Amino acid sequence: MALHSPFKSLAQLSLGAQLRTRSELRDGQGAPLPEGTKPAFFTSQRTRLNAGFTGYRFKVGLSVQDVRVWGQDASTVNRTTTQDNNGLMVHEAWAEVMLTDTTLKNKTFSIKLGRQELLYDDSRLLGNLDWLQQGRRHDAALLKYEANSWMLHLGGAFNQNKELSSGTVYNPTPPGNYPANTNGGAMYKSMEFFYAGKKFEKGNASFLFLSDQFSKYHSDNSVKTWETGAWTRFTTGFFFTNTFNKTTLTASAYYQGGKNAVGQKLNAALLTANAMFALNKTFSIGPGVDYTTGGTSGSTSKAFDPLYGTPHKFWGLMDYYYAASGFGGHGLQDFYIKSKLKATGKLLLAADVHQFLSASDVTSSNNVSYSRNFGTEADVVATYNLTKVISFEAGYSHYWSTASLVSETVKNVANAKSNSNWAYLMINIKPDFILK
């Protein structure tokens, strides 16, 4: 007599892989180069193996990746991985337990534990930063309640460098002085957030409240000594997107307060709005504006930090703003026009133009004033899907910079080139299959 268990009937194994190479020509990517500086050229590679297992009232996910630049290892040497060189790492390793019976299809209540991506709305504040070869992940716990078109998520993380016998002092600076996040800031010691979202037929709206804490410290001769306790920052606001007939409208507004990672009081905001008009089945175009506050008011910082999102998606593909290369906390005004053309069933073309300005006054240490104009960027990207598994992507960007952009308190580049270029070719191979 055969025995059939509900676990066996529901069990499902998924396997996947990704090999993504990206060759880049950098002649001022991130910041303008000084005159006479040679452009850089290299190829980076992400290799990922993904596995997932679903059973009765649980799911498990695992993603292991190796990220490196071609040639950074001597062909006969097995090096020791450092964070500066990325290398082999666990990108995700999580388990999700269904706290209610999984036969209730329109309602779920679960808890997800472990290393995981946090991906919400348009990825502006919480995203997986997939453009970066190593991506972004969090060691966190996530309580999820989803019913019909509503979703309520409550998440939290508490970071420590190692197992301790006493205390909870946390050093957020990885070895090699490597930035802990893409904004070049310190890694949070702890983080909590509440997300409430409502799905529409062609869009969604959401509310976010996120609080992150940063280790307190004191400095002696520029050497930081980490202390007990933490400074707390909070970010809260709303997001909305929906398609009305042939027009897609997106807007968001967030406020940031508390204290930042250096213990400075915060009073900052982010405002965004954009529209995309589908002129026909193949072409869409639309304007937009982003505004982040910046500068200081007395001892209070007005510089908004876009948390743990995907800046590459929003503020120009050359990553001049809110990426690894800082711009002095001046805040940003970004007026842009974006367009997309579906040339064929397999070829997609995109072209964007950005006009960037500072959101606060730009002055040097000896009180020389500059224009708020940071310059103009043009981005062109072509994506060709050879098959469902294989795709090619090529892009070119050009930046026309100003004296304000390269000034002492912004990018601080002496004798800078006024024109910067960046080009890339990316090949993405991503097979996956499911076993039942």
Automatic annotation (TrEMBL):
<protein>
    <submittedName>
        <fullName>Alginate export family protein</fullName>
    </submittedName>
</protein>
<feature type="domain" description="Alginate export">
    <location>
        <begin position="12"/>
        <end position="153"/>
    </location>
</feature>
<dbReference type="InterPro" id="IPR025388">
    <property type="entry name" value="Alginate_export_dom"/>
</dbReference>
<dbReference type="Pfam" id="PF13372">
    <property type="entry name" value="Alginate_exp"/>
</dbReference>
